[in-house]
Every structure is written in structure tokens, then in C-alpha cells.
Specification:
- Helices cover 35% and strands 18% of the residues.
- The chain has 8 helices and 6 strands; from the N terminus they run E-H-H-H-E-H-E-H-H-E-H-H-E-E.
- The protein has a 6-stranded mixed sheet with strand order 3-2-4-1-5-6.
- Strand 5 and strand 6 form a beta hairpin.
- Helix 3 packs across helix 4.
């Protein structure tokens, strides 16, 4: 059995929230990280020990892992796993969020500026992201038993839930996944189940 402990990274800098950043390596909000020290302590105490530790190639996941170590989780080496990176929005990365709400003739998702089936130029659709994250999950469980802590991204965690529960992409984009929240998935053989979603500590 393999248990995945999925944590969304720290809140990004306020300047980054104004545009679609996707796989861009944007800064985190240091002020919010300092104010949330008690939440990192609670999360560090909640996580299993021992566990394999994964991050994505983006700095915001590394800084979140370091914050957990500073909060009391035993420091260890991590593995960088690109399969759990955020959705690649291609040419739309860096576009102001307000530009998406102004688009005409496009079927929008109620909770996300890009619909599930849209493939941004040079990027990937959310449907494609579900397949990519699902492949990473299957590679992981094929070689790892026990607990795996994954510092990831909102989109990737939604995609992981979609893969585990066989949700369609539109449904998955309706899942709430807040910063430094915890989502837990468990794999028994070839079967997945969701243990918790968006835990706030």
C-alpha cells in the first residue's frame, strides 16, 4: 500500500496572483509564510515519519519543504519529480487574469479562467495534465510502498484526485485546494481512494 500526502505550496507573492503563472518560477510571499508559522508547525506534526519526500522543479515547492523542516519535520533530502508540476499554460503564462474574464465566445469554468478542455498555445490542457499526473502516480506506486509526502501545486493536486476517483476534468477543477493544505490519497494494488481533501491545519 502507498499513501500520498499532497501539500499545496506556500502562497505566492501578491504580484504573481494578478497573472496566470502556471510553471513560471514565481516568488512566494515571505510575509504570509512568516504569519503562517503556526500552520507549518501543525502540518509538520501531522505528517508521517518516516516518509519519502518529493518536490517539483519549482522553487515555491522547495521553500515550502524548507518551511516544514524549520517547523519541526525531520530534515531530509528530497527527490524532484516533474510529473507533479503545475499545469503548463504555454503562451498564456504571464497574461493578466482579468484578460481571461473578458474573453468572448469561450465556455468558461466557474472556478478557473481556463476551461478543462482548452489547450493553451504551447501548453497542455487540464485533461492532458490529469494523464501526466496519473502517470507519475503510477510510476511512484510501482516502486514505493508506505508514505510519500509530495509538495505540489493546486492544479496537480486536483489532477491527482481526478485520476484517483475517475473524475472528469471539469469536475476536478471544482475541487478546492488551498495553499499549505493537505490532501491524502491511498493506493491498494490498482485501486485508489481519497482519504481527505484540502485539510486545513
Amino acid at each position: 500500500m502507498t499513501r500520498l500526502w499532497l501539500i499545496r505550496h506556500a502562497l505566492v507573492h501578491p504580484d504573481a496572483i494578478t497573472f496566470l503563472y502556471g510553471t513560471q518560477d514565481v516568488a512566494v510571499c515571505d510575509v504570509t509564510m512568516a504569519a503562517d508559522a503556526h500552520r507549518y508547525q501543525a502540518l509538520a506534526a501531522r505528517l508521517p515519519r518516516p516518509a519519502k519526500f518529493l518536490v517539483t522543479p519549482l522553487t515555491r515547492t522547495h521553500l515550502t519543504a524548507e518551511a516544514l523542516f524549520d517547523a519541526g519535520y525531520p530534515e531530509q533530502d528530497w527527490t524532484v519529480e516533474p510529473g507533479f508540476i503545475e499545469q503548463d499554460f504555454g503562451d498564456w503564462q504571464g497574461v493578466p487574469m482579468q484578460d481571461f474574464s473578458a474573453r468572448m465566445g469561450v465556455k468558461k469554468h466557474p472556478f478557473w479562467p481556463v476551461s478543462a478542455a482548452e489547450r493553451p498555445p504551447g501548453g497542455e490542457s487540464f485533461n492532458e495534465m490529469i494523464r501526466r499526473v496519473g502517470d507519475a502516480m503510477e510510476r511512484l506506486v510501482a516502486h514505493t510502498a508506505g508514505d510519500v509526502i509530495i509538495i505540489s501545486h493546486g492544479g496537480a493536486i486536483r489532477a491527482a484526485c481526478a485520476y484517483a476517483l475517475n473524475l472528469d476534468a471539469h469536475q476536478a477543477l471544482s475541487l478546492a485546494v488551498d495553499n499549505i493544505s493537505l490532501t491524502r490519497l491511498e493506493c491498494h494494488g490498482s485501486d485508489w481512494r481519497l482519504l481527505s481533501l484540502n485539510e486545513q491545519l
